[in-house]
Amino acid sequence: AGARAGVLALAVEGQLETAARATVAEDGSVDLAAVPPAEQPYPVSVVDYAVRTGEAVVLDDASTEGLFGRDPYIRARKTRSVLCVPLLRSGVLVGVLYLENDLGVGVFTEQHLAMLQAIGGQAAVSVENSRLFERQRAQAEAFAHFVPRPFLEQLNRRSIIEVALGDAVQADLAVLFSDLRAFTSLSESLTVEDNFALLNDYLAQMEPPIRKHGGFIDKFIGDAVMALFVGHPEGAVDAAVEMHAALREFNRREGAVPLQMGIGIHAGAAMLGTVGSPERMETTVIGDTVNTASRLEGMTKLYKSLVLISSEVAGQLTEPVRFALREVGRARAKGKERMTTVHEVLDARPAEELAAVKATREPFAAALRAWYEGDLVTAGRLFAECHGAAPADLLARAYAERCEQQLAVGLPDDWDGVDVRTDK
Question: What torsion do the CA atoms of 370, 376, 378, 383 make, to the nearest 10 degrees?
């Protein structure tokens, strides 16, 4: 159009913000320069007039125009030819296109004005479409905070809009269930604001390891986290180890009350789907895999462990040698006939106690075999030796004490090595 400089300003919540600025160099190349939104690289009086009247402004020589010649911008730059076109969409201001030429007078003709008004109408539509797309994108991102995209992918849905009540699939996955210990009593000493601040800060540290290793959080249940890992459970075990490392780092913050966490992991078939009513529904996972993962987390207190996994998880690890595992017992959940063999992931322990506990894995395994066989004298002695070699191994001490207690009352006829305290 013959302009040497141009500015596009867009209306944002009733205020004009500079979106782009371009200048033409001597060689004819165009330089698009970044402009802070609050900056106004144009004559305010001209733009205000176009906005107020909704009409284009064409000036052959702005410096001699009585209405605009005193504008500080025009006086400072000695602006000559000016063309300012409001961008309207259904009568509503979308933005302003401002063009200028500081060399010649009468540069902008009626033909230029007609062309820019036509372009301006199309530009207004494009800007509105762009904003609509941006709002839709922002809305989709907001929904993703509530419904994980991997969950939608499992349901074979591209967006939350396509999800219907009753959608369901079955999948093989690993379920990681984590929970803070004694958080309820801690929360009673904090204000409402401090409770939520602490909880959100803690949960923010737990999510990255899960995402890093291919999982996604299905839901937060207060201070508890339930995460899903589709396919091999390796990622769930890696995530659990890193979650404990992140918690130790989190506990180092100044004035922090140290938090303690247990994690249980189980793998198997589960049903993913939507439940609720037509007015209120949510995605969820149901099945024995979820229940077992939750029970394993609860057993971390009994087994004095940070991370417990089932034999199903241990058996599906493609590289089991990457982890320091040890069998810690057998449990039978209430109402279940089949026993669950429980393993501890020693890698989750702090470095200062890990080496000693790893060194006692063989005698601990021998002690556990004696326990299963009902040879509690041998089991008690070996467990005591393990605790002596690794004082941080509270489970070995607990087993040694349990052997003494059981010997005092005698073995039941149906002894199978399952500690009755796990039958919950």
Answer: 80
